[in-house]
Amino acid sequence: MNGIKKNLRQFNFPDNQVYDVIHQTYLRGIKLLDSGQEIENPRAWIRATSLNVIREMSRKQKKEQSWDSHLIEHQRAVKDSDNSEDENLRLLELALKKLDPKDYKLIVLREIEGLSWKQVVSHLASKGEDITEASARQRGNRALKRLRKIFFELKNHHK
After folding, report:
1. Domain span at residue 150?
2. Which of 80, 107, 132 is the last residue of a domain?
């Protein structure tokens, strides 16, 4: 546990997130064992896997901070400008917020972060949601249709 805390501090995370890291590492171990693979050196595997979990947490935090700063910049731009393009962006933002969280996540991963469908499936699998690439693509297309519908409803309502 001290090694995990050391790694958390190295990535500027609070010590209390040690249990999140242990939990994620445990889940990955269970998944690995369920797939029929063996862990030959459990201590080394735990050390490496927990470090990977912390790295992923760090990447996720940086992406979220980047996304938040872009969102804040965009919100400021919307306030400063009256043109229809900014209005459309504001309505799109509202439409995104009204989406189901799963639809929102798919659209963010695919359209905003620019991930491939394979990367989207991999990301969802790391969060415990196992789906095929084809079903992810289909869900993504349906999510975009719902987003369009909400967007145009908002647009017609704001005229």
Report:
1. 82-159
2. 80
